Amino acid sequence: MEFDREALIKHVSSQMPEKRWRHTLGVMQSAIELAQRYGADPVRAELAAIIHDVAKYWPVQRQASVIAENQLNVDLLNYDAPMWHSEVGAYVAEYEYGIEDREVIDAIRYHTSGRENMTLLDKIVCLADYIEPGRDFPGVDLIREKAKLSLEEGLIAGFDSTLRILVERNQQIFPTTVLARNDLLRQLTQREQASHAKPMSENKGG
């Protein structure tokens, strides 16, 4: 993949306050580390991380307009505005920055909500967003510890934290996040069952 990394960084960083750009730098660092640990391409992971919050500080009406006018996931507009920037960011990546890698675009799109059947890159960018070094919220240390065990365990802990906050604040829960969490639990269960499955005994004949 060829892209002008420095020009991209300059443009994306101009779209947000300095504090949020420091967060993005942390996500870039964590995404690279997770990619190296779990066998993904660190260049693609960093690219998605660079762009993931590009629309975070756009006026909400601008975000809503991009979603509605381009017939993106309009169902998002029925949920809280902090969800919208991921969909808009994926659009910007593809149509303004010329990113053609569908997995990179989708990793940006689902870095907030997750989804069923998350790709390796989806998991890495979403988890990096939770655990980057500048994050400081109740439960983040547990998420970081779980992330050392598996992407799935780290993400489940992250989603648990998000869902808990939404419930406490009496806010709507985006259904895709629940589906993502359930799917990750299924993956862990299947992995555990496979690891405990006994190999078939050899047929030694009579």
How would you characterize this protein structure?
This protein is mainly alpha-helical and 206 residues long. It has one domain (5-196): Hypothetical protein af1432 (Orthogonal Bundle), CATH 1.10.3210.10. The protein has helices at 5-13, 18-38, 42-51, 60-69, 84-95, 102-109, 120-131, 140-149, 151-168, 175-196. α6 (102-109) packs across α7, α8 packs antiparallel against α9 and α9 runs antiparallel to α10 (175-196). It is globular, with a radius of gyration of 19 Å. The N and C termini lie far apart (59 Å).
Can you tag this structure with a few keywords?
mainly alpha, Hypothetical protein af1432, 64% helix
CATH class: Mainly Alpha
**Beta-strand percentage range:** under 5%
CATH architecture: Orthogonal Bundle
**Rounded average pLDDT:** 94
CA gyration radius, whole angstroms:
19 Å
SSE order? HHHHHHHHHH
Tell me about the largest β-sheet: none
Shape: globular
Fourth CATH level, the homologous superfamily:
Hypothetical protein af1432
- The span between the termini is 59 Å
CATH T-level topology = Hypothetical protein af1432
Count of helices?
A: 10
**How many separate structural domains?**
1
Unreliable spans are: 201-206
Number of strands: 0
Structural class: mainly alpha
Helical amount:
55-70%
